[in-house]
Design goal:
This protein has ten helices and nine strands. It has about 260 residues and is α/β, with parallel strands linked by helices. It binds zinc ion (2 copies).
Length: about 260
């Protein structure tokens, strides 16, 4: 079985290591392939994404590493494309499409910018109604493949990121379930695979991967393709605990990668 992590960040965005350090760690771990997915540029929040110039340097650095480590590991140049960025999918080997913000009037409210910010956003923009916030999130998420042209659907239920310890969102509420099911049905029609993201486990935010068990079962039962990603922000968390969660995959990563090439023809 191919060993690959296709959701990887580096210092070009909010990761802790250089791409080369990530590549060396991947080689040491015996990985066959590493796919970099720097955060796409978003003009309204520049703290953790790549700048336009940084994106050019990112691509050049990955070209250099691909040549330097040819024969040792396969390196893919991807991007984690935010719903509100505007990159061309054909410029990359692949794109992960992710919703990190909700557009509330002129304001972009961060979903994963910290628990306090999220709760404040629910108060300021949704009259304290967390379910209304989730409905807005899934309306946006449902459109992510159409809007970005992405090859992979990123952290489908990111809206629950800080919900494990002290829940702010009732995920058993019929409104919540209706919202994600509608988005899931739309996205299933695209045939694009969903990542099962272990990043929040590696970073200590959560004990369970996203999407949730209920959502994974819903997707799997309808032919949804699920595969593991690390959302690694550090060299030592590449493929973090993949072996423990292998049974959640419904498609192997090699098939996922073959799909990228097909999407570009
Ligand atoms: Zn993300
Ligand atoms: Zn990410």
């Amino acid at each position: 079985m191919m060993k690959a992590d296709l959701h990887v960040h580096s210092r070009f965005c909010d990761g802790k290591n250089t791409p080369e350090e990530m590549v060396l760690s991947a080689i040491e771990k015996g990985m066959d392939c590493i796919g970099f997915t720097g955060h796409s540029y978003t003009p309204f929040e520049t703290e953790y994404c790549m700048s336009p110039e940084g994106t050019v340097r990112y691509r050049a650095e990955l070209d250099r590493l691909r040549e330097k480590y040819a024969g040792q590991i396969r390196i893919l140049t991807g991007i984690e494309e935010d719903y509100y960025s505007g990159d061309d999918p054909l410029d990359y080997d692949y794109m992960i499409g992710s919703v990190h913000y909700l557009k509330c009037g002129d304001h972009y409210m961060p979903v994963d910018g910290g628990r306090e910010l999220l709760i404040q956003g629910i108060r300021d923009y949704f009259h304290g109604d967390a379910l209304a916030m989730a409905e807005k999130f899934y309306e946006t998420a449902a459109d992510v493949v159409r809007k970005t042209g992405c090859d992979v659907i990123g952290h489908f239920d990111l809206v629950t990121i800080f919900n494990e310890e002290e829940p702010y969102l009732d995920t058993g509420d019929p409104r919540y379930r209706a919202a994600w099911m509608k988005a899931a049905d739309t996205l299933l029609q695209t045939g694009r695979p969903f990542e099962v993201n272990l990043g929040a486990i590696a970073r200590g935010y959560r004990k369970n991967p996203y999407p949730s068990c209920e959502i994974r079962e819903y997707l799997s039962a309808r032919g949804g393709k699920l595969f593991l990603t690390g959302d690694s922000h550090r060299a030592d968390t590449l493929m973090y605990r993949f072996e423990d969660y292998r049974s959640l995959e419904t498609v192997d990563v090699e098939t996922v990668i073959r799909g990228f090439a097909r999407n570009r023809h």
